Amino acid sequence: MEIPVSSLSWQEGYKILSGSILPRPIAFVTTMDNSGNVNAAPFSFFTAVCANPLLVCFSPMRKGTDGKKKDTLLNIEETGEFVINIVSRSMAEKMNICAADYAREVNELEMAGLEQERSASVKPPRIKRSQVHLECTLHQLLHFGDGPGSGSLVIGMVRHVQVNDDLYHNGKIDTEKLDPVGRLAGHMYTGPLADVFEIIRKSDPG
User: Fold this and answer.
1) Which residue has the higher pLDDT, 189 or 124?
2) Which is more confident, 200 or 134?
3) Quick check: 37 and 203 in contact, CB under 8 A?
4) CATH fold for the domain made of 26-183
5) Based on CB atoms within 10 Å of each CB, which residue in 27, 68, 92, 182 is the most buried?
6) Are 188 and 22 in contact (CB under 8 A)?
7) How is residue 114 annotated by DSSP?
8) CA 4: distance to chain centroid?
C-alpha cells in the first residue's frame, strides 16, 4: 500500500507512527513549575541522543483537543529541569493513571499513589518506585508544527544517574531485573523478555 502523507490527517499519521515504530521505551517524566507544583506524565516518543555529552530526548505532542502545550513542556520551559524515571512492569498500572489529562496544579503522583523522593541535582523529584532515574537540565528545545498533532523535541543533558544497587554490575544494567515496559500501538504494552535473541555485530563486514 502506498500512502501519500498529504492525504493523511494528523490522527491517521499518528496511528502509522505508533503502529510501526515499536516497541517504544517510555520516559516517565517528572517536572516542577516555578510555584513548586509537581507534574508526572509518560511519553513514548523517547530515546538517547549521544553519550558524549550524555544527552537524551523525548517529544511531547500538543494536545489533540485544542493544540495547547502539555504541562510537562510548560514546566520545562519555566524551569529547565526534569527527571526521566524508567518504567518497570511493576509500576505500569500506576504510570497509566498519570497519563490522564489532569489540571496543571494536580500532582499525578499523588493520584496514582506513587511516592516521590528528592533528586540529587535538580528540583523536580524522582519517582521512588522507579529503579533508574536520569536527572536532566534542558539542553535544547525545538518546536515543530502548530495546533493539534504538532509537537516539540526536548533534548536533556543528563546531570546525574541513579540506578538501584541490585541492577548495576560491572558498569552494566541488568535488563531482566529492571523489567522495563515498552509501548506498542493503542492500549498495548510489552515487556523486554518475551522473545529475546542475540546477534553479534561483526567488526568487519567485509
Assistant:
1) 124
2) 134
3) no
4) Pnp Oxidase; Chain A (2.30.110)
5) 27
6) no
7) -
8) 29
In contact, 97 and 109? CB cutoff 8 Å: no
User: 183 by DSSP, 3-state: which?
Assistant: strand
Q: Which of 100, 90, 87 is nearest to 58 (CA)?
A: 87
Q: What is the rounded distance in angstroms from the CA atom of residue 129 to the CA atom of residue 111?
A: 15
Tell me the CA distances in angstroms from 128 to 115, 138, 190, one per residue in order: 6, 22, 22
Phi and psi for 166 in degrees, rounded to 5?
-75, -5
Residue 193 pLDDT greater than 80, yes or no? no
DSSP 104: T
Per-residue pLDDT, 78: 97
Q: Does the predicted TM-score (pTM) go above 0.85?
A: yes
Query: pLDDT digit string (tens) for 32-48?
Result: 999 999 999 999 999 99
Indicate the DSSP class of residue 28: E
Instruction: Check: CB of residue 84 under 8 Å from CB of residue 49.
Output: no
Quickly count helices (H) and strands (E) in the chain.
5, 14
